[in-house]
Write a structure and sequence with these properties.
single chain; alpha+beta; 36% helix
Length: 78
């Protein structure tokens, strides 16, 4: 696995863990990142928990900001 991508996903995972969520890089190949997402829960703020689409966009931007040539993020809900 690409160490930069793993680092990015670890950082995002630490944010998601506050609500019981998690994210894991499954594959990074040919401009596509495939991630596994378990959404958390926040009874006090349901809109604070990211949807799969929001997470995919967030991860894509974070990976691109770190200089990775990623064009697509596929999110697999757990």
């Amino acid at each position: 696995m690409n160490p930069i991508a793993v680092s990015v996903l670890d950082r995002i995972g630490s944010l998601l863990s506050n609500d019981g969520g998690s994210v894991e890089l499954m594959e990074l190949q040919g401009g596509t990142a495939k991630i596994k997402y378990k959404s958390g829960e926040n009874a006090e703020c349901e809109s604070c928990v990211m949807s799969s689409d929001e997470l995919g966009e967030f991860v894509l931007e974070a990976l691109q900001d770190r200089g990775l040539a990623v064009e697509t993020v596929t999110v697999v809900d757990q």
